[in-house]
Amino acid sequence: MFYRHTDLVRFAKQLLSNAGLSEDKAQAVADVLVEGDLLGHNTHGLAQLDNYLKALDSGGMKKQGEPQVISDFPAAVTWDGQRLPGPWLVLKAMDLAVGRAKTQGTCTVVIRRSHHIACLAAFHQRATTQGLMMILTCSDFNSASVAPFGGLDAVFTPNPISAGFPTGGVPVVMDISTSTTTNGLTNRLHAEGKTLPAPWLLDGQGQASRDPGVLFAEPKGTILPLGGLDSGHKGYGLTLLVEALTGGLAGLGRADPREGWGATVYLQIIDPAAFSGLDAFTRQTDAVAAQCRASRPAKPGVAVKTPGERGFERAAAQREHGVDLYPSILPSLVSWAEKLGVTMPAGIEACSSSGF
């Protein structure tokens, strides 16, 4: 079943509003969650709404308030997010950083005690359409499922890192975990009794595995760093970089007691106009992107694309023809719709020309 993306945004916003969020916070969270599904990140879009509503219901996500300013320099700001909704905090931080980057050349906002921030890729086009570059990453010291390279005991979360920058055409947006896979995907596959496409995990005895069940067995298995058994030292290094940018700069992380599901966030806006100029910047990024697309395809008939390009194509198709939601998402929200008095979104007929 397909769904109009505007109906999904309206549905999510109504649930969040009826759960106690103000209109601006509910709108921000709904927009970012649905954007994740539009781009194809279906473990970090509306799939997270059930957990968000549980957090609002339990008090784990704060409903009202503003971030507390810990420090404020012209190009470096630190907030305590007070466990407010993560997508709203990130959009608010972006607004601040964009304004300052246009006068300072760059601005970084670090947020401690944000709640979960959803799909990182969903934020970047808001910066690239203004001719700006953004780096966004996060960690969560409240849990651990990823082992350091060469180890068996989990220390990290998947610690995603993302970046987006403009070209003269389609922007480049990358969003990757510094581990081989994510908690969202392994949890989903475990619930469905399915396996991963490759041995991206270690069981508790140090054997590579495709079975997400090893993460729930005793002794617990772990997710491998990006690069796996062969070159996981590279992902391990990136993971530690994320820890330094988030927990290190925020001054709150794995040295401290756990506080509950959330995120520590690093967000940096860079204005190319303050360096060689936007035209010079996009001249270079256009050339690199063109050379990538001109590369002979390793798989005949499958053209080389830049990171994020397929996601933008998917989003455009789904805006026109309807969003193809993962089957388990709406059923997880039925009880919330009944509890909060919100009508479930109506499906629309799938359009075969959507291409996705």
Explain this structure.
The protein has 356 residues and is α+β, with helices and mostly antiparallel strands. It has two domains: 1-64 and 301-356, Orthogonal Bundle (Hypothetical Oxidoreductase Yiak, Chain: A, domain 1); 68-175 and 202-207 and 227-279, Malate/L-lactate/L-sulpholactate dehydrogenase, NADPH binding domain (Ribosomal Protein S8, Chain: A, domain 1, 2-Layer Sandwich). It has ten helices and twelve strands. Strands 2-3-4-11-5-6-7 form a seven-stranded mixed beta sheet, with helices on both faces. The protein has a three-stranded antiparallel beta sheet with strand order 9-8-10, with no helix packed on it. A two-stranded antiparallel ribbon has the order 1-12. Helix 1 (5-18) packs antiparallel against helix 2 (23-39) and helix 2 packs across helix 9.
List descriptors.
356 residues, alpha+beta, Hypothetical Oxidoreductase Yiak, Chain: A, domain 1, Ribosomal Protein S8, Chain: A, domain 1, 2 domains, 7-stranded mixed sheet, 3-stranded antiparallel sheet, 12 strands, disordered C terminus
Rg is: 20 Å
CATH fourth-tier homologous superfamily of the largest domain: Malate/L-lactate/L-sulpholactate dehydrogenase, NADPH binding domain
| CATH fold category name of the largest domain | Ribosomal Protein S8, Chain: A, domain 1
Largest sheet: 7 strands, mixed
